[in-house]
Amino acid sequence: MKKIVKISLLLLLTSCTVYNFRTISGRYRTKGGFEWGSSIILKQDSNFVYNWQIGGLFGKETGKWSLKGNNLILNSDFHRLKDTTPNFYLLDKKINNSSKIELQLYFSDSTELIGANGLMFYDTDTIFKSVSDTIGLMTFPKQDYDSIKISFIGLKDIVIADSTNDYFKIVSVDFPVDYMFEYFENEVWKIRGKRLIDKTKNEYYYEKRFYKIE
Known about the structure:
By secondary structure, the chain is mainly β. The chain is 8% helix and 45% strand. The longest helix has 14 residues, at 2-15.
């Protein structure tokens, strides 16, 4: 019995991957998804270069990386300043007693916000998707929900958590220039063999996966 236990323990220890700067360093990139153009280079001197692409936005970020068990810790050389600007302005809200929820959307220059993406959530699940039409109107069926999230590239996300009213008139707020970059502050990515996995699930509700290519 002791011999079996010793053999099992030996197999367990030899199967565990010991991560170090030499085994982790290299170039990684995403495969598909919303950030299909993103990549990261982990240098053996603990520096990294992160080239990111989110839709039509792209840029480069540098910083330091470190290891803690099977976790990769990332810290950028520069950090985002705290932004106190509201994400949107609510001009009107009311109860129409209709069978749908309507959101009338405008850019900051008062033109109609066309083609914005909307997600309705209930208990963390997406229960309905919508897109604003040619007059900036976004509609959802009236049902129980926790929040409605509206996204458009270059604008701050709009989140409505009001199940009482069924009509909202909203003006969006542009991203400040500082938001056109990605930053890391003690961000933790999981290491799984030759993959780096960001499980934080950002505002787009997806998990980033990077695959080692060299």
